[in-house]
Amino acid sequence: MINGTIFKQTLHANVKLWLMFTIVLTILQVVMIAVFDASTLTDVSHLVEGTALAGMLGKTTLLGMLASTFYSIHGVIFPIIFIIMTANSLIASQVDRGSMVYLLSTPTKRSTIIVTQAFYLIVALVIMFFMETIAGLVTIQVFQSDTDIVVADFVMLNVGLLLLMFAISGISFFFSSYCNLTKNSLAFGAGIQIAFFLCQLLSSVDESLNVLNYLTINALFDTTAILDGEHYWWKLIILFGIGLVLYIASLEVFKRKDLPL
Amino acid sequence: MAMIELQNVTKDYGDSRGIFNINLSIELGEAFGFVGTNGAGKTTTIRHLMGFLKPNTGTVQIKNLDAWQNAAEIKQCVGYTPGEIAFPDVKTGWEFIHQQAELLQLTDLSFANQLIERLQLDPSANIKRMSKGMKQKTAIVVALMADPPILILDEPTTGLDPLMRAEFIQIIKEEKGKGKTIFMSSHMFEEIEETCDKVAMIKEGKIITIEAISSIMSNEHQQFIIEFSNEQESTRFMQEKLDSVAISHTMVSVNIENNILNEFLAILSTYQFDNLTEQNHTLQEQFYHLYSGGQSHD
């Protein structure tokens, strides 16, 4: 089902972008953990008490701070941009440019192409978050050894974020497989994610905007629930399900559609 | 045995764009030419052969396999050059050729090397900076290198210089000599005339004629255009018992049976004329004739 030649070519064409985003994401994670100082944050949260920003700062533990910053802003938007660019280049842009024709003029099945490209995107995300998590754990050991941190919660935050990105990558990959034109693939494959991201961001700013939380799948990655040990599994399972369904849909839609090659 | 067969194939894109009720049958070892203006439906037809498009109605079969259902399987015996060239994201021509060879599970590149040499291609060049002709040559090498029994070529000589075009035609003739079935679309009528056994013309998505090249090229009689030195000569010539038509004051078109060519030349020698040209009875002429007034038949 996975074609080595196609995978090699995909890796070759996309690995630089992946490396860039992985490095940026890892550095962000490392810096945010390294500079954390519980006392400073308490001061700041006193300053902004009662304003819109108070909601965004959240709790003053290291993980609480990370949950309301890295795990809802930086760690979300950077991988989203990576996903949007990569998903489009994996299928839609090759159909749009016409270079897909060379794969399909060999005895390569359409399903093999989709499975191979989906495999690349998923593996790229898994390794990206794996490296970011390892870097985070090392940084915690080095800079926050005297802070009290539940490592399992930290790992779960990353697993949750990975599952959110799996679902989001499913959306982009689906539109990349469905659309024959890059502009359409990007319009849907990027527009929806950005809308989800903004909904989630706005809902955390003020109570009155909480309703937006119901409009975004990002809310299914419930950092508060993870840190408070509430039931969060079902939400993560839904994220996984969304991703899985979309990847399968991508395969089916690509097998059936007309290709203007 | 029909290697390629289209039966009542229709793909309607609306606004009378698309292809309608196409019936074609290409036999084993036959070279089949496919001509038509831009947008007439050549590429749409070829995309059906390649299994990229699913027909609204009708069936497309290659080696008795459905071109849509069994697309991947069929590619084991099909070489294809697309009408538009967009290479994947690789660096050099070699990288591309090797990648395609891997996908084709081809290990022996000796035929590819032969083609590269004959087409004077330099595959070590950066593929993005290649000229149109170079890219086309690369596409041709990739389509032919696995020695597939069926070749589907969508305007394969676009961008080739006249020397390379001649070399390409030579290669196609050799491939045909090996017994391959060839389906080739082209704008260049000479190409089709030189390589193909049969030709189909498509207009507004409909096949308007399918004919053997030999019957189009039949030359039992020939047509000449004579440009006389002055009007008197021209008028005098018109009184000869020949099948002639005045084109202008001094120009006459005359239709001569092959068996009276000598007589014709004897008559002509008594006239003063500036120019004598032979009009070849060609595919091009047929094409213009059919395209200007041709009725389509289904």
UniProtKB/TrEMBL annotation, chain A:
Transmembrane annotation, as ranges: 17-36, 71-92, 113-143, 149-174, 186-205, 232-254
Cellular compartments per GO CC: plasma membrane
Residue ranges the record marks as coiled coil: none
Origin: domain of life: Bacteria
Keywords recorded for this protein, A-Z: Membrane, Transmembrane, Transmembrane helix
Molecular functions (GO terms): ABC-type transporter activity
Protein name: ABC transporter permease
Source species of the chain: Lysinibacillus macroides
Upper lineage: Bacteria, Bacillati, Bacillota, Bacilli, Bacillales
TrEMBL record, chain B:
InterPro entries in UniProt: AAA+_ATPase, ABC_transporter-like_ATP-bd, ABC_transporter_ATP-binding, P-loop_NTPase
Alphabetized PROSITE patterns for the sequence: ABC_TRANSPORTER_2
GO terms, molecular function: ATP binding; ATP hydrolysis activity
Xref: SUPFAM superfamilies: P-loop containing nucleoside triphosphate hydrolases
The entry's keywords: ATP-binding, Nucleotide-binding, Transport
Domain of life per record: Bacteria
Domain ABC transporter: 4-229
Keyword Nucleotide-binding carried by entry: yes
Sequence similarity: Belongs to the ABC transporter superfamily.
PANTHER family assigned to the protein according to its UniProt record, in alphabetical order: ABC TRANSPORTER ATP-BINDING PROTEIN, ABC TRANSPORTER ATP-BINDING PROTEIN NATA
Protein name: ABC transporter ATP-binding protein
Organism for this UniProt entry: Lysinibacillus macroides
